[in-house]
TrEMBL record:
Family: Belongs to the NnrE/AIBP family.
Domain YjeF N-terminal: 10-221
Protein's gene: nnr
Protein name: Bifunctional NAD(P)H-hydrate repair enzyme
Organism: Nitrospira moscoviensis
Domain YjeF C-terminal: start-end pairs: 231-515
């Protein structure tokens, strides 16, 4: 995992690196510029012959921009720099990089930014735009020429690469201070900043990559941050290993308590997802009258028909058999498609109270706990809850989906600590919290996943990893990352509008393979 930090923490790391590790600020700036230039070509291809407009602020963010301009000029891009400040107003490092740029490109390649038609035309005529106006030094609402520049960038409808942060975005809160650049790609330096993963930060940052610019790891270890980013390397080293001697039993037996009349699809998708993420065996406990329907949908997964109500949902008479069902599994998931029939709600509450297996509680199991979250402290093992904001609001007194989304990290951290559970608060971006107060943010996923059933898929993937022996924290983080990764592969292949949950299931093996290979 990678620590996520605030701009103040980044600035302190910057200062320590320069003063204690003796790495000059200009070296950091040069490395930052190289990282942006490399990422720009990785995403958009060779810059040779392309018109690239670099907008540079008066601080070190602007300084990074002058480095990018010089590097792209050397790669035969047609670079123009629009400077917000005269060289006399620049920070010393930025001024030095400005002079290095004009030395190789000539002063004709740079001009002062002005809110005039020729400048706007130049921006609109770019193939690519580099935003080096403001970074962690942003300290007030953007106005005046900076606001005009940001609006001109956004109005040009051209791909934008943001240096460290999209200008105008608050590094700690992800809030837009008046005006903010909408970037296709953001290259942030040292460590990820919280604002890139919160609120409007997600829309404005685009694809975020973190560039290593040589901050000493010991300094990073000393930063006090309880928030981390789930990374591909964390997933790669945490995924279960399949040794040649492995057999079905090695990968556990996942049990699902799911489904009711009209909602067998949720059970089927969760079961398929559990198998696709590598569980050895999967059995679905299902109300008896819809058992045959479910069997028709499933090949590899088994089913266990259970006593039901007249409404064809789990009945309280299923309690003993479901308790034995849970005892016979490596891990269980309760919830997809259960319905909120009063008898089923009562049954779920009784099962949760005596849970003594690694477990996932989702969907209608969470709805059964509405107003009864105190039952969770009776679980013998802390379960993983996977609410979306609406389900989260029902678990919390006086909460709404809006109030949950207004403070996603705080809500998830508080609930996980108070109830002693692992909490996956779904949404953009998904937040994973654990009983000791630590919290992780998942960088994968996209709006195409806002479609019926993707929650059931995540539930299946999570219980599938629990069944393979991953502890709850690792299972929750890895399942969420893989789920979002499979969703990203699906959106890339089918487009975000037309994709459905079943397509995400089909991409799970590809996401797994990509994460294994690193
Ligand atoms: N390890 C790293 O993170 C590195 C960071 N670098 C880059 O440096 C910037 C931070 O530079 P700084 O000079 O502190 O501030 P900015 O360049 O972000 O801001 C410039 C300047 O702008 C003024 N300002 C603040 N708010 C506004 C506003 N609303 N409107 C207009 N002007 C505003 C304020 O005076 C600032 O000083 C960081 O983001 C990185 O890009 C290093 O160069 C490389 C290593
Ligand atoms: K910027």
């Amino acid at each position: 995992m990678m620590k996520i930090i605030t701009s103040a923490q980044m600035q302190a790391l910057d200062r320590r690196t320069i003063t204690e590790a003796g790495i000059p600020g200009k070296t950091l700036m040069e490395r930052a510029g190289h990282a942006v230039s490399a990422r720009l070509e990785e995403v958009f291809g060779s810059v040779r012959g392309k018109r690239v407009t670099v907008l540079c602020g008066k601080g070190n963010n602007g300084g990074d921009g002058f480095v990018v301009a010089r590097l792209l000029h050397r790669k035969q891009a047609m670079v123009h720099v629009l400077a917000m400040a005269s060289v006399a107003e620049l920070t010393p490092d930025a001024a030095s990089m400005y002079r290095q740029f004009t030395r190789v490109a000539g002063t004709s390649r740079t001009r002062p930014y002005s809110s005039t038609e020729p400048v706007h035309t130049l921006i609109r005529g770019s193939d690519l735009i580099v935003d080096a106006l403001l970074g962690t030094g942003l300290s007030a609402d953007v106005s005046g020429r900076y606001a005009d520049a940001i609006d001109a960038i956004n109005g040009a409808g051209r791909p934008v690469v943001a240096v460290d942060l999209p200008s105008g975005l608050h590094a700690d809160t992800g809030k837009v201070l008046g005006h903010a650049v909408r970037a296709a790609v953001t290259v942030t330096f040292g460590l990820p900043k919280l604002g890139l993963y919160l609120n409007q930060g997600i829309d404005h940052a685009g694809q975020v990559t973190v560039a290593d610019i040589g901050i000493p790891p010991s300094f990073i270890d000393e930063v006090d941050s309880r928030t981390t980013l789930v990374t591909g390397s964390f997933v790669q080293r945490t995924l279960p290993v399949r040794r040649p001697s492995s057999h079905k039993g090695t990968f556990g037996h996942a049990g699902l308590i799911a489904g009711s009349v009209g909602k067998t699809g949720a059970a089927a998708m969760a079961a398929q997802a559990a198998l696709r993420v590598g569980a050895g065996l999967v059995t679905v406990a299902i109300p008896s009258s819809v058992n045959d329907v479910l069997e028709a949908k499933l090949l590899e997964a088994m089913t266990a028909p259970m006593p039901e109500t007249k409404a064809r949902t789990f009945s309280r008479n299923a309690f003993e058999r479901l308790s034995a069902f849970i005892a016979g599994r490596t891990a269980v998931a309760i919830g997809p498609g259960l319905s909120t029939h009063p008898e089923t709600v009562e049954l779920v509450q009784s099962l949760v109270k005596q849970l003594a297996k690694p477990a996932v509680l989702d969907a209608d199991a969470l709805n059964a706990l509405a107003g009864r979250a105190s039952l969770l402290t009776e679980c013998k093992q802390p379960p993983i809850l996977t609410p979306h904001p609406g389900e989260m609001a029902r678990l919390e007194p006086d909460a709404t989906a809006q109030s949950v989304n207004a403070d996603r990290i705080g809500t998830a951290t508080r609930f996980a600590r108070e109830r002693g559970v692992f909490l996956v608060l779904k949404g953009a971006r998904t937040v994973i919290a654990r009983p000791d107060g630590a919290v992780a943010i998942c960088p994968t996923g996209n709006p195409g996943m806002a479609t019926a059933g993707t929650g059931d898929v995540l539930t299946g993937m999570t219980v599938g990893l629990l069944a393979q022996g991953l502890p709850p924290w690792e299972a929750a983080c890895v399942a969420t990352y893989l789920h979002g990764y499979a969703g990203d592969l699906t959106a890339a292949a089918l487009g975000p509008a037309g994709m459905v949950a079943g397509d995400v299931i089909a991409q799970i093996p590809h996401a797994l393979k990509a994460c294994h290979e690193g």
